[in-house]
């Protein structure tokens, strides 16, 4: 270990400035006095032990640390020339009695600048030296192994007890001596260290940097270094070094391992650099806004390009300055919403420098920027997107209106054709039937079997033709839909479908009278017709259950079958024009179309539409 006999120390620590520097790195309570035992410096550990502030201790006799009633019995041994160590009871400023082990080291005794170094170590109830202080401040950790200095230690500097690495260099920065902490930190033995220069301990990256200025050291200035170091095994670490020159041109260096702290700082710096690059290189406009004044604190290149302002101009603007005046209320309403993490603040309008108004979707994140509570703002220009959406909606409405118009035209044409068939063709066929029937009666007296058979066959053919014409007219437009209403038309359609397909249909309605527009009644009837047609073609059902009822001025038509059903996931892949037609008719009524099906469990269709 480093051991300096008194004679050697005469030139090592000759002034109070260096004393003050040195004892601050001692972990135990340390007090330095001059040759007259007047306290000239002490460390914070000593002030904490005796519950005094540092400036309250300086300038007093060492006896100041003991009660006046016991000054003679307690301070006399401390001032005795033969005293080197011992245990003395003390009473601190709180009136608590504590046992303290004291060692006294003589420094440069023959010099006018010499004095004494006192090291105080509290003793606990188990007589362990270096236990926690009676003041309970926790500043005093147990010393290694609980050992104390041997009696001859009074003649040596106790640097092996210090928590920091200590290395002594000459003025050319060659190592002269080191303590055990320095050996642990560097990985070298004391003997190996004495063969090295400071540059041998520095990492290669640090060799390009300037060495400590000798002029500053010679003037007594303390130099604080933070350096990347290289240990014996080649591993790297970071050290905080305090260097100060001693009178004989030797340099005292205290080194503290700050690797964890430095790595944290480097990681933070790298993170900040990454975020800075993300901010500057983002293709989307980004702003930093002061949440107190609303002034911009920073903007990226994308914002400058997009909005047309220079960076200097942006920094003179507030966030309100790029918004239409009529949007101020929206801004004030949302600006105080706390945004933890990147969250969407909604849609806003911004004004470019040329006056162009754009729609933007704003995302924000609150953070501290240059000690100011700020908000990071990401503005996504969605002007073209919204315009495309508006155009799409406009086109959709136009197409739906066209489809509705075409359906109305078709229904009108079907109604017209049905009436023409019923009124004109049906009437002519009836007259023809009457004429053939009259002719058949007149031919009876001739008893010509061949002629009579021919007229009879003609009458039968006419009857079938009349039925076919009536069926076609009814399929084109059921007359009862106009004459009797929607409910009766659906009941009739149900019976007709049951007769043709053999599938039993149960229709239920809780509506006695349904005052709806003709177009709505027609659409609901056609949807019901199409649903029954699909069931007859694909469902392989035996029963159909249908119901119509009113709920809060909404007509609800339900059609359910017990057929084979289908997988809903395959619905989009099928060319289901019938279903598409039903959906379109429902949308034209401002209604809602729902279909649910499962393989083996049938299908259910629900149509909901307002009465009006």
Automatic annotation (TrEMBL):
A GO molecular-function descriptor: protein dimerization activity
UniProt KW keywords: ATP-binding, Kinase, Nucleotide-binding, Phosphoprotein, Transferase, Two-component regulatory system
PAS domain sequence ranges: 271-315
The enzyme's E.C. designation: 2.7.13.3
Enzyme kind, highest EC tier: transferase
Domain of life of the organism encoding this protein: Bacteria
Family matches, as PROSITE patterns: PAS
One GO cellular component term: membrane
Catalytic function, reaction form: ATP + protein L-histidine = ADP + protein N-phospho-L-histidine
One Pfam family linked to the record: HATPase_c
PANTHER family for the chain: NITRATE/NITRITE SENSOR PROTEIN NARX-RELATED, NITRATE_NITRITE SENSOR PROTEIN NARQ
Protein name per UniProt: histidine kinase
Organism: Niastella caeni
């Amino acid at each position: 270990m480093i051991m300096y006999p008194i004679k050697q120390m005469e030139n090592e620590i000759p002034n109070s400035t260096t004393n003050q520097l040195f004892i601050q790195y001692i972990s135990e309570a340390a007090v330095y006095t001059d040759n007259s035992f007047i306290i000239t410096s002490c460390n914070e550990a000593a002030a904490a032990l005796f519950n005094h502030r540092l400036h309250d201790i300086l300038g007093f006799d060492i006896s100041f640390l003991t009660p006046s009633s016991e000054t003679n019995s307690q301070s006399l041994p401390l001032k005795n020339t033969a005293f080197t160590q011992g245990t003395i009871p003390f009473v601190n400023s709180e009136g608590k009695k504590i046992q303290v082990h004291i060692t006294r080291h003589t420094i440069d005794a023959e010099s006018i600048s010499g004095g004494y170094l006192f090291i105080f170590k509290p003793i606990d109830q188990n007589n362990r030296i270096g236990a926690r202080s009676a003041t309970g401040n926790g500043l005093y950790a147990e010393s290694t192994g609980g050992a104390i200095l041997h009696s001859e230690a009074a003649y040596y500097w106790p640097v092996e007890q210090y928590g920091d690495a200590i290395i002594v260099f000459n003025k050319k920065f060659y190592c002269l001596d080191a303590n055990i902490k320095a050996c642990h930190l560097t990985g070298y033995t004391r003997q190996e260290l004495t063969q090295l220069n400071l540059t041998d301990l520095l990492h290669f990256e640090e060799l390009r940097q300037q060495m400590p200025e000798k002029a500053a050291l010679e003037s007594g200035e303390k130099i604080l270094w933070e350096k990347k170091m290289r240990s014996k095994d080649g591993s790297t670490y970071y050290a905080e070094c305090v260097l100060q020159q001693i009178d004989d041109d030797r340099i005292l260096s205290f080194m503290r391992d700050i690797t964890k702290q430095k790595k944290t700082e480097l990681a933070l710096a790298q993170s900040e650099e990454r975020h800075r690059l993300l901010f500057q290189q983002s293709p989307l406009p980004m702003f930093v806004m002061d949440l107190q004044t609303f002034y911009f604190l920073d903007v990226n290149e994308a914002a400058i390009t997009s909005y047309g302002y220079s960076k200097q101009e942006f920094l003179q603007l507030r966030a309100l300055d790029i918004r239409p005046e009529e949007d101020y209320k929206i801004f004030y309403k949302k600006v105080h919403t706390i945004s933890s993490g990147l969250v969407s603040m909604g849609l806003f309008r911004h004004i470019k420098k040329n006056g162009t108004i754009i729609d933007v979707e704003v995302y924000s994140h609150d953070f501290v920027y240059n000690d100011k509570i700020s908000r990071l703002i990401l503005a996504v220009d969605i002007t073209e997107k919204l315009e495309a959406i508006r155009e799409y909606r406009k086109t959709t409405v136009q197409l739906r209106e066209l489809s509705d118009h075409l359906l109305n035209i078709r229904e009108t044409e079907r109604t017209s054709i049905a009436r023409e068939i019923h009124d004109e063709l049906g009437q002519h066929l009836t007259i023809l039937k009457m004429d053939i029937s009259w002719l058949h009666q007149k031919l009876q007296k001739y008893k010509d079997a061949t002629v009579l058979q021919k007229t009879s066959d003609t009458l039968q053919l006419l009857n079938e033709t009349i039925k076919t014409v009536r069926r076609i007219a009814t399929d084109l437009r059921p007359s009862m839909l106009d004459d009797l209403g929607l409910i009766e038309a659906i009941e009739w359609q149900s019976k007709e479908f049951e007769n043709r397909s053999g599938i039993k249909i149960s229709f239920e309605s809780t509506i006695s009278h349904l005052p709806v527009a003709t177009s709505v009644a027609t659409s609901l009837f056609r949807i019901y017709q199409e649903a029954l047609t699909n069931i007859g073609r694909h469902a392989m059902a035996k029963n159909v259950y249908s119901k119509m009822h009113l709920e809060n001025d909404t007509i609800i038509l339900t059609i359910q079958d017990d057929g084979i059903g289908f997988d809903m996931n395959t619905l989009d892949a099928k060319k289901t024009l019938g279903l598409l037609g039903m959906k379109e008719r429902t949308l034209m009524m401002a209604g809602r179309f729902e279909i649910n099906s499962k393989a083996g469990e049938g299908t259910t269709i629900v149509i909901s539409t307002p009465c009006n």
